[in-house]
Design a protein that fits this description.
alpha/beta; 113 residues; 2 helices
Amino acid sequence: MTIITVTDAAASHIKTMLIKQTDAVGFRLSIKKTGCSGYSYVPEIINHTKDQDIHFVLENGLHVYVDPTSEVFVKGVVVDYVLDNTGLKQKRLVFINPNEKNRCGCGESFTIE
């Protein structure tokens, strides 16, 4: 069972980050309470796993870990790697969450009902 979906572009970017960090074991997604809207995504390249994390391996071999307390907030999220058309026009990970109800003006935090 996969809780989140990672596009090919995002998986390629994450794998590049994993290669740069020789002791890395995978990609972890969690959320934290922050910002003006409530929650923020916390994507991490991790060096060690947590026993309670939900773990799955994507078809491309990428190991993904999800914080179990974040599962209800990130279930169904699509992680993509796209060109940010604002500011410096850099590529970045984006999180497309069907459960989001609102996002703050700066785009850094979101709410879920």
